[in-house]
Write a structure and sequence with these properties.
Elements lengths: L1 H25 L21 H15 L3 H13 L33 H14 L6 H16 L1 E13 L7 E11 L19 H4 L9 H9 L5 H8 L6 E3 L16 E3 L11 H7 L6 H8 L8 H9 L1 H16 L24
Antiparallel strand pairs: 1-2, 3-4
Length: 351
């Protein structure tokens, strides 16, 4: 894993070097203002998106789970005192108590070394410019983008010739990458990093064992409605889960940490098959299936589940809109917070 992380960092640094060149050419203009904007880093760090993408793309080679893990980090960050990167902070007692050890995150939230690699590459390109909170927001969108790209082998007539019939080209197979049409959105940027954590709030993150009304209340508390709930749960269209959290609860006798696909139909694609699983009663998580089976669902979430199962583009549009909405939960902007140099530590510690 250390070698993979080093490779991710190396490719990120190459992108960072290119970004630094563009930054110098642009005059390193400062991105001011307090409102989140898709163009926030256009002048101050023009290659931010490319740097993040390259590190994730490289990390995914050795760890295919990374895209789903990074989306989850953004989710778990925003639901606790807003999208401020508090989830990334390590213990620094007695001042900082990490959110990483609460039940919803402990031995479950992952991808922190990749975030470290992204931060290192961005600090090389644009020192002190891109916040850790914005890294999580960018990583979430890019992760969906990468999972929505499929690979196939296609015939190719190249320059390799049959040794016996030199005049006859020999067909070969070559990799072809195609866009699968997953959701896209312009990531609004300009968040700053918090200097505190909130373990009490982190202990109240949505749980795979929650009833529907509990989930709806937790979403309402951060100004997200039932449509947002159904759309954002759709991120379970890819990724894996430990069997101890599933409805079957390791009944086959496997160890609790055994990983299972969240979507057993198309586990490696971002699509709407997840909602078909709900209609068949085969969702892996109780918190997913209740959106259709709970008595309260009939007039709230169930109609949305049916919509998304029938229309993938409808799901994609709503997922993108809900991700933007979630990314706007209580961000720190302007002079609030800070831009951490190390996502695991507040700057005042001097690490």
């Amino acid at each position: 894993m250390a070698a993979a992380s080093s490779s991710s960092a190396s490719r990120g640094l190459l992108a960072a070097a290119h970004c630094a060149l563009l930054l110098a050419m642009a005059g390193a203009a400062s991105a001011g203002g307090a409102a989140l904007s898709a163009t926030f880093y256009d002048a101050s760090c023009p290659c931010a998106h490319d740097v993040v993408r390259r590190v994730i793309q490289d990390a995914r080679v050795s760890d295919p789970r990374i895209p789903a893990s990074l989306i989850r980090l953004h989710f778990h960050d925003c639901f606790v005192q807003g999208c401020d990167g508090s989830l990334l902070l390590d213990d620094d007692l007695p001042v900082i108590q990490t959110e990483k050890n609460v039940p919803a995150n402990n031995n479950s939230a992952r991808g922190f070394p990749v975030v470290d690699d992204i931060k290192a590459a961005l600090e090389h390109a644009c020192p002190g410019i891109v916040s850790c909170a914005d890294i999580l927001a960018l990583a979430a969108e890019i992760s969906v983008e990468l999972v929505s790209i499929t690979r196939s082998l296609v015939p190719f007539i190249g320059k390799k010739f049959n040794s016996k019939l030199l005049a006859s080209p020999e067909p070969e197979l070559t990799e072809s990458w195609t866009q699968a049409g997953g959701p896209r959105w312009s990531v609004l940027l300009g968040r700053r990093d918090g200097t505190t954590t909130n373990v009490e709030s982190a202990n109240n993150l949505p749980s795979p064992f929650d009833e529907l009304e509990v989930l709806q209340e937790k979403f309402r508390n951060v100004n997200l409605d039932s449509t947002d709930l159904v759309a954002l749960q759709g991120a379970h269209t890819f990724g894996k889960v430990q069997c101890q959290f599933t409805r079957e609860n390791c009944t086959a006798g496997q160890p609790e940490g055994t990983l299972e696909d969240l979507d057993r139909v198309t586990p490696n694609l971002f699509d709407n098959k997840y909602y078909g699983n709900l209609l068949e009663g085969s969702a892996q998580l109780r918190s997913d299936q209740v959106m259709l089976s709970d008595p309260v669902a009939a007039t709230t979430t169930a109609p949305v589940v049916h919509r998304f199962a029938a229309d993938q583009q409808d799901f994609f549009r709503n997922f993108a809109a809900s991700m933007i909405k979630m990314g706007n939960i209580s961000p720190l902007t302007g002079s609030d917070g800070e831009i951490r140099k190390n996502c695991r530590r507040v700057n005042s510690k001097g690490y």
